[in-house]
Amino acid sequence: MTDVALAFDEQEYIPAVAQDADSGEVLMLAYVTEEALERTRETGYAHYYSRSRDELWKKGATSGHTQAIEEVRVDCDGDALLYLVEQSGGACHTGYESCFYRTVDGEEVGEQVFDPDDVY
Amino acid sequence: MTDVALAFDEQEYIPAVAQDADSGEVLMLAYVTEEALERTRETGYAHYYSRSRDELWKKGATSGHTQAIEEVRVDCDGDALLYLVEQSGGACHTGYESCFYRTVDGEEVGEQVFDPDDVY
Q: Cβ B1–A81 below 8 Å, yes or no?
């Protein structure tokens, strides 16, 4: 079996969706570079690339809220990834389990699982 | 309640992840413009913007495999959307239920739900 060919964009990023492997909750969307993906596969922990800080980061390096990788999937045209993860704590820096804790109308529908003041 | 401010990128796109509201399966990732999102909210059916064809499209317009919207969520920093949908047929043009039907190693893990030759 050979790796699926990936279509990084012109800035060499691919969006990666992290999903809780147990609950199925979609946790976050971030970007990876080839190196971030390699690091993810080598270590078994989700790594991303911060476009604003311009650096590779391990999810949870500061907060302890790591994402142990269960599986990495790729979509039909190779330009998006899906990380199936075991999430420690909450995925969102706001304290919510998922970054998608609001509807687009502004209603809060997610669950807060930690107090960000205790973590950051 | 007011709409959450959205951070469209410099090309005026936001990535949108479609998730099956019942099974929790992540179906696809595509992009929306402000107009595509408006159309989605007005009609109750998922619309996206094709960056390669440079046009607004309704998911399922050709195949019949529409996505009825149950909820649209937005992430913490307003630069990604989550469509919770009721998927008719399969989301992927390959016949799989989800576009994420392979691991990055090339193993097929998804379920094929229709024959693309019958649809396109």
A: no
Backbone angles phi, psi at B36, to 5 degrees: -65, -40
Question: Which residues, at least 6 apart from A103, have a Cβ–Cβ distance to it below 8 Å?
Answer: A109, B71, B72, B73, B74
Model confidence, pTM: 0.96
Domains by residue range for chain A, with CATH: 14-110 (3.10.20.810)
Nearest chain B residue to A71 by CA distance is B103
With CA atoms as reference, the chain A residue closest to B5 would be: A104
Condensed to tens digits (0 to 9), the pLDDT of residues A22-77 reads 999 999 999 999 999 999 999 999 999 999 999 999 999 999 999 999 999 999 99
- ipTM of this model? 0.96
Is position A9 annotated in a ligand binding site? Answer: no
